[in-house]
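Researcher: Please predict.
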Amino acid sequence: MHAPDRPQTYAHPARLILILSLAPTIGLGIGRFAYALVLPDMRDQLGWSYSAAGFMNTINAVGYLAGALLASRMIRRFGLSSTVRWATLACLLSLALCALSGNFVVLSLARLLIGVAAAALFVGGAALATTIAQSRPERANFLMSLFYAGPGLGILSSGLIAPFVLQAFGPGSWWIVWWALTLLSVVMTIPLMLAPLDTRAAVDHATRTAFSVRPVLIYLVGYFLFGAGYIAYMTFMIAYVRDGGGGAAAQSVFWSLIGISAFATPWVWRSVLALDRGGLATTIILGVNAIGAALPIFGHSPLLLAISALVFGVAFFAVVGSTTAFVRFNYPPAGWPAGIAAMTIAFGIGQTLGPILVGAITDAMGSLSFALNVSAAMLALGAIAAMFQRKLSSTS
């Protein structure tokens, strides 16, 4: 892999990447995943069918796919840091729209916008985090993984807020939850706007680079299956906990455990992420993710659900990190934005089709258990697919 001719140096790379991780904290951890916590109250109070409720996830996934398709073009035109910052502001706008209106069309547009913005900030942020991490080659994998702990903070904070706001204010308080999450996101955006993210080197190398799908097709299939498989767990597990008799506290603990476990990702998977052997790292981490998703199949025991949340959470964002590591190992810096975008597109297609498939199976079988079975199976298949990816012969 060719290094930049004049590598950018960063005085405090870990601090910068942690600040940068606030972007996916807002766009993914809060904007994407908090919907599962608010959905039951929104569906009850707004008179939605299950199909209408599912459509909100689908339109968000469509936006994410569109954002992934547009990300490389946006980065070439505006640069990495500007793309991340403007996309984060778009996420704030969409969160506020969710709080302002119960109109189905307005909410659909808000979910679409946050999907587009989340993908753009994720691709730009991951490429920027990779560039910053390269200033400390000996710690690059650890530094990169700090970026992927960001969404865990969003999951944790929304898990500590949403269930208790709904419990305190009663039915119909879904909009108050969205306002609380919007205000929290505004606070998180401030350091991101002020951080000295000098990306001159990154912008110089974010030029158009050919990306061939064929050499990594099996890997993209595995990541597609991850996108399709994780969505059932992250969408339906709160309902599963509730159906098992779990109240606000149980739902909060379960959701928060997923977020907390993400903070351990940089340390748990540091050695695995350093494996420069094709898809091996992704196979290992995605296999653990599948085990976490499969555990609730065996019952509603609080201990079992807690272990499931911890195992699933510690591997969830590490899977995403492993794809970035794969791109870093196999492509020159000029190819990183295009490579990360290609991975995000495969993931986006998976999470767009996943809810449709899982929803149809749930409607046909009448049980969430079947949806979780399908989720775990797709994650396991994704791990198997990644196992067949070999290291690319050339990184130039």
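Model: The first helix runs from residue 13 to 20.
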